[in-house]
């Protein structure tokens, strides 16, 4: 990139974060950074990059968006990358077996903007080039963002997918869009770390109770349970309440006391 | 691309044409083809590709959009690529010295759709990776399409730029958008070949008349004249009329007769 002398300082918004799960090619990470900064986004999180990090190919393709790559947060688990998030939007085709809100790009941008305005920490999650997000990753999301692609040729390049989101996000920057989707709770929203701990707790107790049967259906059953709770857009306080509820139920089952749970 | 057995045949719209002027990297041409087909476009014209054509790197990156590359029309001049076009929209930053309509992406898509509905042949013109369209190329356009980019980091990757157009085009496919911009002439619109011949004719006569002075201002003067006429969105009949008008003026100047002009 050549910076003209009269070029203003770039717009650099830290949120929403763009989270790349298991990206394969450094070139694509660089192209993502460029497309993000083209539309004023600079919060990038990279989870389990196949070829390690930092990757010189990413910097070569970023064409001057080095600042996005230099500030990028590297995570070796999706849990870590999502820990502080209160709204997770997954970019994927419409999922077949999960009940989640499905948003078009403009709707996603408006809803994320409304969430930000209420102090939430929204992230948009993109899967790896070849396969996209897997079912467990999609199950983590509060909502899906999907693009109106050609049904006969739907597979979008990773950096293109991020660019389409960033572009749509940028379009909404000047608009004062009405919050189409928001929570009006007094308690702050639960973070992904809160929710994760709750799900882990719940699933462990359910396993002890031989809930998951037959075994080959277990992953699907877990995803459906998570989806159900995620749709509720729980607050921090509600998560605490639910954990108390789980403990209370467990005590009744086998005589264990509140406080046995190590989490 | 893996085609699922239940995948429908892809949407493949031949118009508007995407014209790549002097593209440098085969990878980018392939990424353009993929992004086009993702949103149902398959009319590609490639002008003076730096590395020749066909280019195996383009096919590698197209990820299954080979049909777009196989059908692509290769042209060794922009004149040839635009010859049958009746509406040329150039993707570029807002030009400083040309008076042309400047459209946002949604506006461009709506106007191109309206033109198509009236039987026009619209093309969208994209410049090379490093430098974008030059002034003479931009001067050929009836209108500019520009994206709301970060003013501090405006340089978009070529395939991203095409993807943003194709995406916006696809968004409008289901909408019954009111024609915001159209011509309501009885005569068919002039083609670029008609207009080119007229400009060549006009400029030759202007040179003979020592109109272009000083010499270093000639290119700019020519562009401004072209822009002026292009804004008028001339019909075929109007171009004939103007050419007759030029001839008539020339006769008065030096005693030459109608019919001397070899074009």
List keywords for this structure.
263 residues, alpha/beta, Alpha/beta knot, Helicase, Ruva Protein, domain 3, 2 domains, 7-stranded parallel beta sheet
Q: Secondary structure elements and their pairing?
A:
Two copies of one chain form a homodimer.
Chain A: E1 17-21, H1 26-38, E2 44-47, H2 56-62, H3 66-71, E3 73-75, H4 78-82, E4 87-91, E5 102-103, H5 105-117, E6 122-126, H6 135-139, E7 143-145, H7 158-171, H8 192-208, H9 218-231, H10 236-254
Parallel strand pairs in A: 1-2, 1-6, 2-3, 4-6, 4-7, 5-7
Helix pairs in contact in A: 1-2, 1-7, 5-7, 8-10
CATH topology term of the largest domain in chain A:
Alpha/beta knot
- Backbone structural class of chain A: alpha/beta
Strand percentage of chain A lies at 5-15%
> What is the helix content of chain A?
40-55%
**Reading side by side through the largest sheet of chain A, how are the strands ordered?**
3-2-1-6-4-7-5
- According to CATH, the homologous superfamily of the largest domain in chain A is SPOUT methyltransferase, trefoil knot domain
Give the integer mean of the pLDDT values of chain A.
84
For this structure, the quaternary state is homodimer
Q: Low-confidence stretches of chain A at least 5 residues in length (pLDDT < 50)? A: 176-185, 255-263
Give the terminus-to-terminus CA distance of chain A.
Answer: 49 Å
Number of helices of chain A: 10
H-E order of chain A: EHEHHEHEEHEHEHHHH
Task: Please give the radius of gyration of chain A in angstroms.
Answer: 20 Å
The most extensive contact between chains is: A-B, 36 and 36 residues
Shape of chain A: globular
């Amino acid at each position: 990139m050549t910076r003209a002398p009269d070029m203003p300082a770039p717009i650099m918004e830290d949120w929403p974060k763009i989270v790349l799960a298991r990206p394969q090619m450094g070139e694509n990470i660089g192209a993502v950074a460029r497309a993000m900064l083209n539309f004023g986004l600079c919060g990038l999180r990279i989870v389990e990059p196949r070829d390690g990090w930092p990757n010189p190919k990413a910097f070569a393709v970023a064409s001057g968006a080095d600042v996005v790559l230099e500030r990028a947060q590297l995570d070796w688990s999706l849990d870590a990358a999502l820990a502080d998030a209160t709204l997770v939007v997954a970019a994927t085709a419409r999922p077949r077996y999960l009940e989640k809100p499905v948003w078009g790009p403009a709707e996603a941008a408006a809803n994320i903007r409304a969430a930000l305005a209420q102090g939430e920490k929204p992230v948009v999650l993109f899967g790896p080039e070849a396969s996209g997000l897997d079912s467990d990753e999609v199950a983590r999301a509060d909502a899906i963002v999907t693009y109106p692609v050609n049904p006969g040729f739907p597979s979008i390049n990773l950096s293109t997918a991020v660019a389409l989101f960033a572009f749509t996000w940028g379009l909404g920057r000047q608009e004062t869009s009405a919050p189409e989707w928001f929570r009006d709770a007094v308690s702050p929203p639960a973070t992904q770390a809160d929710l994760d701990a709750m799900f882990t707790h719940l699933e462990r107790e359910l396993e002890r109770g031989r809930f998951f049967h037959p075994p080959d259906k277990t992953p699907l059953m877990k995803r459906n349970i998570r989806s159900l709770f995620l749709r509720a857009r729980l607050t921090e306080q509600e998560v605490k309440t639910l954990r108390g509820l789980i403990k209370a139920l467990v005590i009744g089952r086998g005589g264990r006391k509140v406080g046995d749970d190590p989490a």
